[in-house]
Write a structure and sequence with these properties.
Elements: E1 5-9, H1 16-30, E2 33-40, E3 48-50, E4 54-56, H2 59-86, E5 102-109, H3 114-120, E6 125-129, H4 137-149, E7 154-157, E8 168-172, H5 177-185, H6 187-192, E9 195-201, H7 211-220, E10 226-232, H8 239-249, E11 254-258, H9 264-270, H10 273-280, E12 285-288
Parallel strand pairs: 1-2, 1-6, 2-5, 6-7, 8-9, 8-11, 9-10, 11-12
Antiparallel strand pairs: 3-4, 7-12
Helix pairs in contact: 3-4, 8-10
Length: 289
């Protein structure tokens, strides 16, 4: 198991550089192919609302929106090409055998971000931006499409570009099926790590195996790394905050966390560990659902 194919959905945002750096770090670890995916509307659908719900589309408005789309596409394409050139990554159709990082730019027509979920099904990993307060809603739409429709793991890039991914990995363990599946997806990283820390929180999670049982399973898979067990008293803190605070305290450079053990709607209303981590993590997070 490895991470030889990486999808990077491209959108115009301040976080694009951090996304590309996170993808490149992964590609250097595994000799991966990076595909930059830019999707655009199938047709301009600029509309103006007049009166009581009357929708009006004018040729001038359509042309204006189309020009904005072209400008945006050209800008992010230029940034993608310059980033790869600066890092000596060849651009073009992937060549086999694939032992060193390669990259390519792909454009697809799609009315929305659903194309991301579909395309990510044939990639080992999709790298997306961590959503930021007040940022373009497109970032969250891309993340959700990859997480819920892709069937594969996502790697969430923090606002600031990381420098490493395989020194010290933290696992946010809650006994759940989602986290077990995420750990399975993350084994290429775990197998390379020098240290793994399993973080558990007192009275938090679902009925399931203990951290010690998880550690035993990893050891039986031949992972020759140090394993620490953290049993953290969350007191009145949010579980998501405890996981992030502990990961920061131990100096981990990647957090492995299953997504939405509870109903996603319930977490959106009442808060939850996944939502807190999505909006606040300062280190890369590998998630799966």
């Amino acid at each position: 198991m490895t991470m030889k194919t990486i999808l990077v959905p491209i959108e115009e945002s301040d976080g694009l550089d951090a996304i590309l750096h996170t993808a490149l770090l992964t590609a250097k670890l595994f000799g991966s192919y990076i595909e930059g995916l830019y999707y655009q509307p199938t047709a301009a659908s600029a509309m103006m609302v007049a009166g009581e719900g009357l929708v009006v589309t004018t040729p001038e408005l359509v042309e204006s929106v189309e020009q904005q789309d072209r400008d945006r596409r050209e800008q992010v394409h230029k940034q993608f090409k310059e980033f790869m050139a600066d890092n000596n990554i060849p651009l073009g159709e992937p060549q086999l055998p694939q032992n060193t990082p390669q990259a390519n730019w792909v454009e697809e027509e799609s009315p929305n971000s659903e194309i991301v979920g579909g395309r990510s099904r044939v990639f080992d990993l999709t790298v997306v931006a961590r959503p930021k307060k007040g940022a373009n809603i497109a970032a969250m739409s891309i993340l959700e499409a990859a997480l819920f429709e892709g069937g594969k793991p996502i790697l969430i890039a923090p606002p600031n570009s990381p420098t490493k991914l395989d020194e010290h990995i933290a696992i946010a363990w809650n006994g759940s099926t989602e986290t077990a599946r995420t750990i399975a997806f993350s084994m290429p990283f775990i197998n390379r790590a020098k240290k793994v820390t399993i973080i558990t929180i007192e009275d938090f999670g679902v009925p399931g195996p203990s951290a010690q049982a998880l550690a035993g399973q990893l050891e039986r898979n031949g992972i020759e790394i140090d394993l620490d067990y953290k049993h953290v008293d969350r007191s009145k803190e949010s579980p998501g905050k405890v996981f992030l605070d502990e990961a920061k305290q131990i100096g981990s450079d990647l957090l492995v966390k299953g997504a939405y053990t509870q109903s996603r709607i319930r977490q959106m209303i009442f808060g939850g560990a996944t939502d807190y981590i999505l909006w606040n993590s300062e280190i890369p997070v590998l998630m799966a659902n």
